[in-house]
Amino acid sequence: MSKSSQKARLFQNAPKSSDSSRSGVSTRLFTWFGLNGEIIAHAGRKVATRRGYCTVTQPARDVTLFEHDRTRFFRLLAVFCGGQFVFWTYLAQFAFTGLRDTGGKGDKGRAKAPTTTGLAGMWSFEMNLGSNAWRYGFTLGCLTIGAGIVGLGAVFCRRCVSKVVLHQGGRMVTVCTQSPLGPTRGRTLTVPLNQVACHAHRQESPSFIPLRIKGHRLYFLLDKEGTVNNTRLFDITVGAYRPF
Prior knowledge:
Elements: H1 3-57, E1 63-67, H2 71-98, E2 115-118, E3 124-127, H3 132-159, E4 161-166, E5 172-177, E6 188-192, E7 196-198, E8 208-213, E9 220-223, E10 227-228, H4 231-236
Helix pairs in contact: 2-3
Region (Disordered): 1-24
Pfam families: TMEM70
InterPro entries: Tmem223 (IPR026100), TMEM70/TMEM186/TMEM223 (IPR045325)
């Protein structure tokens, strides 16, 4: 075979090899761009998801997360506590002024026998309800019970939450408590979000959701009968657990 024929054959085979190399290069480029397109799309979805999460926790306006108006109940509670205080105060006044000492001498120079109590003859002791120890003790006990009932009612009223508001930007939270005078006459606390935490999930609590605010010893109580307007936003902001 002559050299000219060999060159002709090589010249004819050259386009085929170049075409095959071009097809291989194009295939590799297509595969590379396809993989990178999926990676870029996946990364874009992550970024979008992350941005969406941040925008959800940072609302553009004030959002009322929880509300529950129990003004009627706390008015009845106030009436009950007031009645109990009046009753126990009257009983203390009666004990202080009405009890008489029975240990002294009575009329006609006869000594009055002190009141004796016993249980089936096993033990007995003398009891003089008019003595200073019994009189002052009974009076102090009645005043303590009346003041305790009023104090427990006041603490329960100041710890029951009527409204929780997440402010614009998601950094501040306002907690409003109940009041017998009306829903807007209760105590109002505005604190940063990182100082508010729930120590129990709202679905795990049977009757009240315990809300903790940094700097306050007792819990604030959210009634389960109240309305949670945005459950997802509540769970990731106010309802989240944060160690103090």
